[in-house]
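Ticket #4471: complex job returned nothing on first submit. Input attached below:
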Amino acid sequence: MTQFVGLLMAGGTGTRFWPDSRRARPKQLLPIGTELPLLEAASKRLQPLIPPERQLVVTSAAIAPAVRALLPALPPEHVVGEPAGRDTAPCIGLAALLAARIDPDAVAVALPSDHVIAPEDAFREHLEVAAEALAEHPESLLVFGIEPDRAATGYGYLRRGEAVGSFRGKSVYALDAFVEKPDLPRAEDMLAEGGHSWNAGMFAFRPAALLAAYAEHLPELVDDLQRLAAAWRGPDFEALMDEVFPTLPKVSIDYGIMEKVQGTLMLPLPLSWDDVGTWGSLARLLQPDSDGNYIRGDAQLLGVSGCIVSATDGVVAIKGVDDLIVVHTPDATLVCRRDDDQGVKQIVEALAARGMLRYL
Amino acid sequence: MTQFVGLLMAGGTGTRFWPDSRRARPKQLLPIGTELPLLEAASKRLQPLIPPERQLVVTSAAIAPAVRALLPALPPEHVVGEPAGRDTAPCIGLAALLAARIDPDAVAVALPSDHVIAPEDAFREHLEVAAEALAEHPESLLVFGIEPDRAATGYGYLRRGEAVGSFRGKSVYALDAFVEKPDLPRAEDMLAEGGHSWNAGMFAFRPAALLAAYAEHLPELVDDLQRLAAAWRGPDFEALMDEVFPTLPKVSIDYGIMEKVQGTLMLPLPLSWDDVGTWGSLARLLQPDSDGNYIRGDAQLLGVSGCIVSATDGVVAIKGVDDLIVVHTPDATLVCRRDDDQGVKQIVEALAARGMLRYL
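Support reply: We reran it on our side without changes. The output follows.
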């Protein structure tokens, strides 16, 4: 049986779920369209295959204590806090080195912690498929692709090449190209054409293979990441993180590594998936009422249709309006048009600009 | 100098200011368009003329403790709790008897406790005018009229007759008739015609004169009210209120007394007045921002116009909508159209019907 190490990336700030998400309580710590907080659900989703002592979470240092409290089954040192966000390449590079310390022969899976995926057993089955493909191609990296159900313009795409083999009855492909976030006509073309998946930032690799790629394409990171990994679980690790991590170059793994590496594999995930990106995504995660409203928490609606409503520790009462997003929390209420859920970011920026940090 | 007794009627439940107003915290206990809670402002407004020991508040028994806490300068027995609402005739009749116990020769002024009136010195000057008129007409009742500034259909009107005299340079009239709440054309006619004032439920009288009117027009109330008044400030008063008050007929002073009595005087109040009837009334009490929004508390608006916004212990953030009412409290948020502020009542009824009493 394959020995995995699970690497959960939990660095997001989740501005777009304000007012539920705050600086001290970003989206991955919240239950949004789910029973459990998203990060807890992500950890539990792996557990039949990857026990907590083989899971590792990389998050911001500010919320590392909250993450340890949420995931008490993980050893405390398995929650690594970044003192500053440096995008995904330093984060996943460090995580890969720590995975090698846990088990140098493991297959590492690096996964965002704030997505919704179902069914969970099919997801785990695909991790096993990835591991079998990597057993045959140990030098390769593998990227999982989400099968598109609409012409989304908010994601990068993965174009598949030839099938390189079949594992557990599932085809694994050579990755032909990364496609940047498209405009709508291009997205519609790709959907019609087939052979394109969304890039959800989900990877599998042997740590040695990823580190070889860093040595080739991001050599300026390697010494620092190795110093940090050597100090892990020791008394000086946090101080060294504070000293070194903020000095690392800010670069994404897609740009710094994945787009440059040859021989990458691609495994489509024919599953239900959502990145729970904005309040509007609740319309994909919840069942509507008879007037097409999507409701989370207590609500009283009279003559209301097409609204997305969230009430935390309270009730939202609405009369005679359509197609709004209304979110209640004890110290803040948000109202915007449903087609403008990206606008939450501007509200947060405006509050910050006025120094109203107590609401952020 | 005239010795007044001030009778503040504070029995309202204020459903229309939900979610700020609750069963345990009706409108008169809240600051709405004012610095102070409305009842506290009403009491303070009288104080240069009527000291706290000559003020009396009639309210519901449920909130009497909260009223005593709000008005600590009043003797505790001067806050009388009704165990059940019986409309205004039992309430004002009892208050008049208690006024007579405080000072049988006083001029009593019976005033709602949840209106905004300015300027305050001009208001008190008109109370003095009323007292002088009643000194010449001791058997009469006097009703104050609000000078209409629009063709309102939500109030009853007072039609004035001949002037009966001038006091401190202000004319006092014979009351010609009460006019029931009109339809819009009739309201427009009255506004154009002149000679009509709004009936705001504000009266002045010598207690003996009002009690004579009760003896004639509501004799079935007199014995019970006198029993209650005799027990006031004694150990059995509350128990007797619990026993007797709920059995009294439910009748308004307008219908039961004022419309039947002859010789009533009418004194116009050429003042700024508002009954703060609904959330929409904040547009008359607050200054608008440059986009025509009326804001109470912390708010962050982006591309928003014509909204009425209230935030208690929190912030309301709105983007890209117009002409809404948005109210935040820690455990409830209200959203409705600005032209539908009466609809709050239906929301409260719907919550009650579902048994969600924790929000009421």
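The first strand of chain B starts at residue 4 and ends at 10. Closing as resolved unless it happens again.
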